[in-house]
Write a structure and sequence with these properties.
about 230 residues, alpha/beta, four-stranded antiparallel beta sheet, WH-like_DNA-bd_sf, WalR-like, Response regulator transcription factor, phosphoprotein, transcription regulation
C-alpha cells in the first residue's frame, strides 16, 4: 500500500479520485491548495504526490519547485495543460511523470505504481541482508528492524539508510547521496539530504545532537556505525 497525497482544488475531480485510489489499496490524503499540499508533504511524508497545476493560491509548478527544495518525494503532475514545452519544463524541474486530463483512476494508478518502481521499490533478488549493530536491513523485502522492532520508512528513507548501511564506518558525502540515492548527477540542494536524515534519525530514536547510528561529519557528510564503535 502506497501513501499518496492528491493536491487538487476541484472537488468534482478530487473526491472520486480519492475514492478510486483507496479502492485500489492506497492510503490517500488530499489538499486543495499549494500551501496545504506543502504542509501535508512535510508533516505526513507521503510516498508520492499527485499534483494539479491550477491551484488557487500558487501555480502547481511553483509548488513543485518548493517541494524539490525540501523533499525527494516522487511527483506526478496531473493537469489539463498539454503544451509540450510546459511538460518538458516541469519534468526538468523535478516531476517524475506527467498525466494530461482527462484520465481514468486506473491510468493514474498504473502511473503511480510505475513511478514507485522506478524510485527504488525493487531490488535484485540476491542482495544480502545488512546488519549494523541492532539494525537489520532486508533489501528484498524492503524491511528494516531496530532491535527486532519494525521501523516504518518511506521508499526514499529506505534507500538512504540502505546506501549508508552498505558502507558502514565510511563517511558518505551529500553529493554522493544526491547522485546515488536521488539520482541527481549534477548536484542539488543539500537541504534535501539534511531533511531526510532528520526524518531517518527520528525514526531510529536518535537526534543529530545525540546520535547512535547516524553521525554527521561537519562539512563532509554522514557516517553510519553501530553504537559503541
Amino acid at each position: 500500500m502506497a501513501r499518496l497525497l492528491l493536491v487538487e482544488d476541484d472537488l468534482t475531480i478530487r473526491a472520486p479520485l480519492v475514492r478510486a485510489l483507496r479502492d485500489r489499496g492506497h492510503a490517500v490524503a488530499a489538499a486543495s491548495t499549494a500551501m496545504e499540499g506543502l504542509r501535508h508533504t512535510l508533516d505526513d511524508r507521503p510516498d508520492l504526490v499527485v499534483l494539479d497545476l491550477g491551484l488557487p493560491d500558487l501555480d502547481g509548478g511553483e509548488l513543485l519547485r518548493m517541494l524539490r527544495a525540501v523533499s525527494a518525494v516522487p511527483v506526478i503532475v496531473a493537469t489539463a495543460r498539454d503544451d509540450e514545452r510546459e511538460i518538458v519544463r516541469l519534468l526538468d524541474a523535478g516531476a517524475d511523470d506527467y498525466l494530461v486530463k482527462p484520465f481514468t483512476a486506473a491510468q493514474l494508478d498504473a502511473r503511480v505504481r510505475a513511478v514507485l518502481r522506478r524510485g527504488g521499490a525493487e531490488r535484485p533478488d540476491g542482495e544480502p541482508v545488512l546488519v549494523v549493530g541492532g539494525l537489520r536491513i532486508d533489501p528484498r523485502a524492503r524491511q528494516v528492524t531496530l532491535d527486532d522492532t519494525p521501523v516504518e520508512l518511506t521508499p526514499r528513507e529506505f534507500d538512504l539508510l540502505h546506501h549508508l548501511a552498505a558502507r558502514p564506518g565510511t563517511v558518505v558525502t551529500k553529493r554522493e547521496l544526491l547522485t546515488e540515492v536521488w539520482q541527481i548527477p549534477y548536484g542539488g540542494a543539500d537541504k534535501t539530504v539534511d531533511v531526510h536524515l532528520s526524518w531517518l534519525r527520528r525514526k531510529l530514536g536518535e537526534s543529530a545532537q545525540q546520535p547512535r547510528y547516524l553521525h554527521t561529519v561537519r562539512g563532509v557528510g554522514v557516517r553510519l556505525t553501530a553504537p559503541g564503535t
